[in-house]
Design goal:
heterodimer, A: 99 residues, mainly alpha, 3 helices, 0% strand, B: 483 residues, alpha+beta, 4-stranded antiparallel β-sheet, 3-stranded mixed β-sheet, 18 helices, 37% helix
């Protein structure tokens, strides 16, 4: 279907995922008593922004009937998110191992 | 259909805009700044002021700049006047009757063969839809007369005695407003009547050269048409040209089989003729003069489109709009004596992008589009090619190659339109980022062209229009994402 007339549903879903992700991150940080450095926070915020871009590109491009652009857009914005998550996690692990 | 929010409307009618702005605190910002000795140049004193601003009316995308001169270099002294609508580049008569007849025979044979052989995209129903879409355009049935349309009420018919009356007939003064108010009003009316965007050009010594040669100026109170002299006459007075973008279906142009491309542009031209009648009727109802007669009425659409800032000149020798790409036909022109606030040309980096992109030229099956990186000044003598613009530094289309391709079996090819990177729906935010880059970081233009290919744009696999779910087709084939 070229025109997703219930686009709002996907954006609400994206909102829930991002909200849930933020809450989950908060819980993990509290439980494991992790304090992120300022540059790690920047990376986390960047990750959320990239997720928003990736989701918007994917949903909107599918709506435009441009499936190839949708999947490549997801890859284009999504891959850096994976790198950010792994990078921040490694930074935290290295710091904790030193302590 | 959603009901209008009466409560909201009443609420707004009881609060003055000035009070509303005070409520927002802008007044205190101004007072605070004055107390600190700062002479802040507030763009607008209040909402009334903002409404009358041409810049707010125009609502250009954020990556588009207004400029004093167009991005295509123009030498107005060298600019030739086109003889008339029937001597412009897309009229087969520019080749002469003999060649035109030969090409037309090939075209008819090809159409017949495609229908018989059920060639995908060229079926009898595709052909019929294109005929239906073209109705009112090529035949001129929807186009208004030069000074018309005239209409008188007939009580014996479906009577509505106040319809079609002029202020003079009603015995009331004609509408009066400032040029800014008039421009805003025309924009509003244009949207209702089917124009996606509007610009305004004042006729002066330069822009008069964009008017066709069969239109002359005389010291008369009102213009007229003189069939004996084969001329149309405009009065020597202050005149403005309303330049209106008539959108074309991107859905039909981008995602369906070949034939509906032809239907898409024919339908836009047909709607342009309907729009022409309506805008002229609107101006008539306000008590102002209006001249034009549909898509062939006034002059060079590309020239006026560029001068009014609706689009930039592009490699395919037509226009690219920042919002609509090449997916519009045409910039419909109407001359009026209603004073209007002119709009400036724009720079969105489009002409510059064309130097790098070349996608339209690469995809052109006839090789009609120039592949040179840089545009050039014409190298032919005045009068030698009356159908191609002298006076601009451009990429000049080989019109004979283009038209022969279209008239010998590929009805209204339009491939250059379909593949243009600016021709997209506007839902994904990514497109805005790309356009911002094209406008402000031309060094990345080559990368953007590569990404356009990689992301699969411009070469969508067409499907048969007849296999679509009707509800997936936007009304009139026009999507709303780009408007």
């Amino acid at each position: 279907m070229r025109y997703i007339s219930w686009n709002w549903f996907w954006y609400v879903l994206v909102g829930f995922i991002m909200g849930g992700g933020a809450v989950y991150l908060g819980v993990i940080l509290k439980e494991k008593v992790i304090k992120l450095k300022w540059y790690e926070w920047i990376l986390v915020v960047l990750g959320f922004v990239l997720f928003l871009f990736a989701a918007q590109t994917f949903i909107a491009s599918l709506g435009e009937g441009a499936a190839q652009a949708a999947w490549l857009g997801l890859l284009f914005f999504g891959l850096p998110i994976v790198l950010i998550v792994v990078g921040v996690w490694r930074l935290v692990q290295v710091r904790r191992s030193k302590v | 259909m959603a009901k209008p929010n009466i409560r909201k409307m009443q609420y707004h009618s009881t609060v003055s805009r000035r009070d509303f702005m005070k409520f927002l605190g802008l007044g205190s910002v101004g007072m605070g700044a004055a107390a600190m000795g700062l002479d802040l140049k507030m763009p607008f004193a209040d909402l009334d002021d903002m409404k009358s601003s041409v810049f707010s009316d125009r609502k250009l995308p954020f990556w588009v700049r207004e400029v004093d001169e167009p991005t295509v270099e123009i030498n107005w002294d060298e600019m030739e006047v086109f003889p008339g609508a029937f001597n412009t580049m897309f009229n087969p008569m520019i080749f002469g009757m003999e060649d035109a007849q030969k090409v037309n025979k090939i075209r008819v044979d090809k159409v017949r063969s495609d229908i018989t052989n059920k060639t995908p995209g060229f079926s009898i129903q595709d052909h019929a839809l294109t005929s239906a879409s073209a109705y009112g355009w090529l035949d001129g049935k929807f186009a208004p007369p030069w000074t018309g349309p005239e209409h008188t009420m007939n009580l014996e018919g479906w009577g509505h005695t106040t319809c079609y009356t002029t202020p003079q007939e009603l015995g009331v003064p004609r509408y009066e407003g400032t040029p800014e108010e008039n421009s805003k009003m025309i924009r509003v009316a244009d949207r209702i009547m089917g124009a996606a965007d509007t610009g305004f050009v004042k006729l002066d010594e330069r822009t008069k050269k964009l008017i066709y040669g069969d239109i002359i100026f005389e010291d008369v109170d009102e213009g007229y048409e003189d069939p004996e002299r084969h001329v149309k006459v405009l009065p020597n007075k202050d005149l403005w040209v309303i330049c209106s973008v008539i959108p074309q279906s991107l859905t039909m142009g981008q995602y369906t089989d070949r034939m509906s491309w032809a239907g898409a542009n024919a339908y836009a031209y047909s709607r342009a003729n309907v729009y022409s009648s309506r805008i002229k009727m609107f101006l008539r109802g306000l008590g102002y003069q209006q001249y034009g007669s549909g898509t062939t009425g006034i002059g060079r659409a590309v020239g006026f489109g560029v001068m009014s800032g609706l689009a930039e000149y592009c490699r395919a020798s037509v226009m690219v709009s920042p919002q609509f790409g090449t997916s519009f036909r045409t910039v419909l022109l109407t001359v009026t004596d209603l004073p209007l606030a002119v709009t400036k040309p724009i720079d969105a980096g489009i002409t510059e992008f064309c130097k790098t992109c070349k996608k339209c030229a690469e995809e052109c099956p006839s090789g009609a589009i120039n592949m040179d990186t840089e545009p050039k000044w014409p190298d032919w003598a005045p009068g030698e090619k009356p159908n191609v613009s002298r006076g601009i530094k451009g990429w000049f289309l080989d019109t004979k190659k283009c038209l022969t391709q279209m008239f010998s079996g590929e009805p209204d090819c339009s491939r250059c339109q379909v593949v243009c990177p600016f021709n997209k729906y506007d839902s994904a935010v990514m497109h805005d980022l790309v356009k911002l880059s094209i406008s402000d970081a031309p060094a990345l233009n080559g990368v953007i062209r590569q990404l356009d290919d990689t992301f699969g744009y411009g070469k969508q696999e067409g499907t048969s229009l007849w296999d679509w779910d009707p509800k997936d087709i936007p009304l009139f084939g026009l999507d709303s994402s780009r408007s």
